[in-house]
Specification:
The protein is an alpha/beta fold.
């Protein structure tokens, strides 16, 4: 994140930089220098791999910082203010999404021993709860190759993020199907090398698993890692959640053909993809930044459904699809006579997410 970057936007419906905003300045302890071919030396904040926790009072800029990092997967035009805010290109924002469908996803890392005895290694639901949807969103992001996951306490399911000692005394672990992210976060990083950036305002236990703690104070960023570690020692929570390898899910979903004489494909803003009469709700894919991406998602979903003629491994099929696009351009997957919109190539992560939310998709679990 370059010094001088303007992170806040003009309004919730504008991408223009806010006037008279406080420019971003890196804490000295995190300052790095990068040599750019046509710009020379750039100085700013480098966030290392690992688990980063962002704290601070309400309205001090925590979510604004995270939002800038979310959009750092894209290049920005001159004058945007975030031209040199750059994040891992595979980074995925993860949130709760009540009511979404889940299709044959292994969420057993976080959800187990459901009262009805439902299998969470091969889990499906037409109406997922907040915690279950967030668990599925995280696992599907891993399946899509995300190496950075971004979360905000405000848009997360509380019981997915934390479970305090008082509640654990009343409801024992044996009676609680949900294993919180807090318990597994260090193990996920150790086992898969996936980094996390998490905004928290009240979940103090996350300080104990953090490699880096940033505090927002009147829109200025401070490195308070040392102070956070001292507080964890005083509160006797340091080392409570050990970094141990976890048993990661197998990404072994397959897609079966869906027969259709003719498909109607359409999109509505950045919220909805329409396939025939079914709406795919993509409004919680917060990194979709323009309607052209949902237009492309509609056409790409149609291409997938037209070209899956036998049972296909989803990871392999989508990987090959993007290799085709690299060789021949988007014209390879967008119909020549497309009728509406200006398609803009979405990332693999959003295509995975769109397919996973398509209730009519014939997704099955492939057992090894």
């Amino acid at each position: 994140m370059a010094n001088g970057a303007i992170l806040p936007r003009e309004s919730g419906i504008s991408d223009r930089p806010m006037r008279d905003a406080v420019p971003f300045i890196s804490p000295e302890s995190l300052q790095i220098e990068i040599e750019l071919p046509h710009k020379g030396k750039m100085i700013g904040m480098g966030i290392p791999k690992g688990i980063t926790v962002i704290v601070g009072g309400g309205y001090h800029g925590k979510s604004t910082l995270l939002k800038a990092l979310e959009q750092g997967v894209y290049n920005h035009i001159a004058g945007d203010g975030r031209e040199y805010v750059v994040a891992d290109a595979t980074g995925m924002k993860i949130r709760a999404e009540d009511g979404r469908s889940i299709l044959h996803t292994d969420i057993s890392l976080f959800i187990n021993h459901l009262p009805a005895g439902q299998d969470t290694v091969d889990f499906s639901s037409e109406n997922a709860s907040g915690s279950t949807s967030q668990a599925a969103n995280l696992i599907e992001a891993m399946e899509a190759g995300a190496e950075l996951l971004l979360l905000d306490e405000d848009t997360s399911a509380t019981n997915f993020m934390i479970r305090d000692k008082v509640m654990a005394k009343l409801v024992s672990d044996e009676k609680e199907p949900i294993t919180t992210l807090l318990r597994h976060i260090r193990g996920i990083y150790k086992t898969m090398g996936i980094s996390f950036i998490i905004v928290v305002g009240s979940s103090g236990d996350y300080l104990s698993v953090a490699d880096l703690v940033l505090q927002l104070d009147h829109y200025k960023v401070k490195d308070v890692t040392k102070e956070a570690k001292e507080i964890c020692e005083q509160c006797q929570i340091a080392g409570q959640y050990a970094e141990k390898e976890v048993c990661m899910p197998e990404f072994s979903r397959k897609l079966k053909p869906i027969k259709s004489a003719r498909r109607k494909l359409k999109s509505m803003g950045t919220d909805t993809v329409l396939i025939d009469r079914e709406s795919i709700d993509v409004r919680y894919l917060e990194q979709l930044s323009e309607s052209g991406q949902t237009t492309a998602l509609a056409y790409m979903m149609g291409w997938i459904l037209d070209h899956v003629t036998k049972e296909e491994d989803i990871q392999e099929f989508i990987e090959n699809m993007y290799k085709l696009i690299e060789r021949k351009g988007m014209a390879a997957v967008i119909p020549a006579n497309y009728s509406a919109g200006h398609p803009v190539l979405p990332r693999k992560q959003e295509l995975y997410a769109c397919l996973s939310r398509y209730r009519s998709a014939k997704i099955v679990k492939k057992y090894m």
